[in-house]
Every structure is written in structure tokens, then in C-alpha cells.
Amino acid sequence: MYSIAFEISVLFSAISLLLIGMSFVNIVKLKSLASKEVTGDEEDVKEDRLYKLFSDMTLASTVSVILSIVAFAVIAITDQSIVLTIIVAATAFAAAMINYRSPSYMKYVHPERDFPSVNDKEYAKKLFDMSDEGERHIMLQGLYKSFTIGNALLLFAMIGCVFYSVYSNESQLFSIIVMALILIVMNMQYMLKVRNR
């Protein structure tokens, strides 16, 4: 790992920068398309395109944040150059800012709605409450699929870390404990919410 740490950091940083660029392009397209006047069937096409641009921008910025953090972790663990550290830190910051601001771009998808401020402590609840039944159904389907996949992936990651620890003689106990705690908290949160409905 240490022998290719520089290459991994550069690769993840490059992908992250590419995703940041894609996010900016999608923001520009989103604003441009939102300002166009359309009528009839074109309205449905426009709304669908706006939603896809917003979703792509949000996904790209989220993946960019994750890859930047991984690149930063590799740099921190393997003592890479300060220049690369600064570049990756700047990339992570830019990705995090886009990701943080991404909910505010929803106003271009649905300009008729009065969205809550991203800084509002009850942003998620207010957003959920203002959504119609169809949107809630789609949100809940996505969240439930993410929840079940997240559970399975974390469980397999824990098992993988156990095997890695045994065969490499490098303890992954901390990672295993953190993943176990995440699984416990996720499942407790879900089950308590369902039980106390």
C-alpha cells in the first residue's frame, strides 16, 4: 500500500476534481434550463431534466467528498508531500461546500415551492413534510433500500476486516468496532422509530 500511496492519492484526487467539475457544469445547466420558458409537454421534459441534473450534481459532489477524504487519509497515513496534502485538502473543501449547498439548488427544480433553509435544524423534517405523497413514497423507497444495502455492506466489511486482520497480522479492530457501532446505531434508530410510531 505504501509503495503506491502517492498514485492512489493522485488518482482519487483527480477523480474528485473531475466530479467537482461535473457538479459545476450541472449547476450551470440547472440554472440555464430553469430560466427557459416552455409550454405543454415540454414542461414535463424540462422538470424531468432539471431533477436529473440536480440528482447528478448531488451524487457527484457526495462521491467527490468521500474520495477526497480517502485521498486525505492515504496522505496522512503515508506521509506524502505537503503540496499534495494542500491540493487534496482544497479539493475536499470545495467538494464539501458544493455538497453542503446542493439542497439549495432544489429551488431551480421546483421554483414554485418555498424550501426551508439548509441551515434550519429541522431541514429534513420540513422538506419531508412539504413533499407530496408520491415524492414521500419515492424517498422512503430510496431510504429503505439504502438502509438494507448499508446494513449488508457494513456487515460484509466487518467480516472482511476480520479476515484481513487474521491473514495480514495487522489489526483492524478499531475499524471493526466503529462499523459495529454504526450498525447498532442505524438499526436502533430505525427500530425505535418503527416501534414507537
UniProtKB/TrEMBL annotation:
The keyword Membrane applies. InterPro entries: DUF3169. Pfam families: DUF3169. The keyword Transmembrane helix applies. Keywords: Membrane, Transmembrane, Transmembrane helix. It comes from the Bacteria. The chain crosses the membrane at residues 6-28, 57-76, 82-100, 146-167, 173-192. This is DUF3169 domain-containing protein. It comes from Caryophanon latum. The lineage of its organism: Bacteria, Bacillati, Bacillota, Bacilli, Bacillales.
